[in-house]
Amino acid sequence: xxxxxxxxxxxxxxxxxxxxxxxxxxxxxxxxxxxxxxxxxxxxxxxxxxxxxxxxxxxxxxxxxxxxxxxxxxxxxxxxxxxxxxxxxxxxxxxxxxxxxxxxxxxxxxxxxxxxxxxxxxxxxxxxxxxxxxxxxxxxxxxxxxxxxxxxxxxxxxxxxxxxxxxxxxxxxxxxxxxxxxxxxxxxxxxxxxxxxxxxxxxxxxxxxxxxxxxxxxxxxxxxxxxxxxxxxxxxxxxxxxxxxxxxxxxxxxxxxxxxxxxxxxxxxxxxxxxxxxxxxxxxxxxxxxxxxxxxxxxxxxxxxxxxxxxxxxxxxxxxxxxxxxxxxxxxxxxxxxxxxxxxxxxxxxxxxxxxxxxxxxxxxxxxxxxxxxxxxxxxxxxxxxxxxxxxxxxxxxxxxxxxxxxxxxxxxxxxxxxxxxxxxxxxxxxxxx
Length: 434
Ligand SMILES: Cc1cc2nc3c(=O)[nH]c(=O)nc-3n(C[C@H](O)[C@H](O)[C@H](O)COP(=O)(O)OP(=O)(O)OC[C@H]3O[C@@H](n4cnc5c(N)ncnc54)[C@H](O)[C@@H]3O)c2cc1C
Prior knowledge:
This protein is of the alpha/beta class. Among the domains are: 11-74 and 109-171 and 258-344, FAD/NAD(P)-binding domain (3-Layer(bba) Sandwich); 364-433, no CATH class. The chain has helices at residues 20-31, 56-64, 68-72, 113-123, 141-147, 160-165, 232-237, 286-307, 315-344; strands spanning 11-16, 36-40, 53-55, 75-77, 81-85, 90-93, 108-111, 130-134, 148-153, 169-185, 197-201, 207-211, 216-223, 246-261, 265-266, 269-271, 277-278, 393-396, 409-410, 421-424, 430-433. The radius of gyration is 22 Å and the shape is globular. The structure holds flavin-adenine dinucleotide (FAD). Flavin-adenine dinucleotide binds at residues 16-22, 39-42, 50-54, 137-138, 154-156, 160, 180, 254, 273-274, 281, 284-288, 290.
C-alpha cells in the first residue's frame, strides 16, 4: 500500500480568502484542531450585502460551530418565493419553503451578510492554532505550498490561485447584467411591502424583490447590456420606497454568471466556493454552496492530516460536491430564465425536465447502490446534534444495536428515517445503514 509522504510544514492548512467560504472553513479547521493560516487582503468583512438567503443545512453547519444563539438573532424565516406578473398577481410559487424543518432549522432564511461574516470572523478568535493575516495578499503558490501541507483557495470568483494553476472555467451559458439595490428602511413596516420573495415578470423591467432580515430590503433589476444605470429612486418609487423612508446602502451593476472550474483539486491545492463555481443568485445558493464545500472538505483534511487517511480521500470532495453544485446551478439558471418566459407568456410553466428542486445535497459518491437514506443528511429532531460527538457516530433506535467501534447514540426512529441504525459522518451525512 502506498503511503502519502508527510511534508514538514509550519501549518496543516493555508486558506486564501476570508469570505464566507474561507471563514467557515477556517472555523471548521479550528474545530478539528488543524494548524491553519488564513490570508485575506481586506481588513474587514465586505461591508455591503451580497448573499441574503441561506438554507437549513447552512444554519446547521453554523450551529455545529457553536453559533446557534448568535445566529438566531441574525436570521428571519423566509416566507417563500413566487413569480408575479407586472400587476403583482401571483403566477407560480416555488415549492420547498413550506417543508418541515427536519434538519433542525427552517428550510429558508434571510439575513444581512456582513453580520454573518462578522460572526464567523469573531468565531476564529477562540482558536489559538488558527492564525488570520488580514490586509495582506496571499503569497505566490510555491510559497504557500511550502507553508502548509494543503492550500485551499477560497479566493472568490477571480481566484488568483485558480489562475496560477491554469485551471479553466466552463461557461454554462448564463450571462446577464443586473442592477443590485440594497436599502435599509427607517421603519421595517413602512412602506408596506410583500413578505414573500418576488420574481417580477414585467416585460418592461424584470426584477427580483427580497424582503430581507430586519430593515434590509433587496431589489435586483435586469439591465440591457448597453444601458446606463438608471435613476435608482425612480425604480424604487413604484414600490413606495423613497429617500424619506429608506437609506440607500448600495446600487451596483453585476454580471450574473454560471461558471464551473474544470477541476477542483491539483495535488495539495483545492478550490472551494466561488473559486470553484459561480451561479446566478435566483435561488440564493452561491454562498450556501461555498459553506457546503467547507463542511464537506474540513473533516476530510483532518482525517488525512491527523489520522493518516490517504490523500485520495480529498478526491471525494469534488466527486461528492460537483453534482450538487451542477444541480443547483441548473435550477438557478432555470429560475432566471423563467422570469423572461413568464413575462412573455404568463401561462408558461417551468421546463418539464427541469432539475429536482431540492436544494439539499444528496451525495452521489455515497450512492453506491446503497439503500435509502445513505447519502442524505441525518435529521435533527430536538437539537439532536447537541448530544452527538464531533466525529463519526452510530445512531440507533435502541441500545440492542452493537456497533463495530463506537457506542451508538440512542434516538427516536424519525432521526434515522426509521432505520434501526445509521452511521453518521463528521459532516452529519449518513454513510451506512444497519
Ligand atoms: C447580488 C448577489 C446576490 C447573491 N445572493 C445570494 C444569496 O442570497 N444566497 C447565497 O447563498 N449566495 C448569494 N450570492 C452569492 C454569494 O455572495 C457568493 O457565492 C459568496 O459570497 C462566495 O463566497 P466566497 O467566500 O467563496 O467568495 P468571496 O465572498 O468572493 O470571498 C473571497 C475572499 O478572498 C479574498 N481574496 C481574493 N484573492 C485574495 C488574495 N490573493 N489574497 C488574499 N485574499 C484574497 C477577497 O478579498 C475575499 O474576501 C449572491 C451574489 C450576488 C453578487
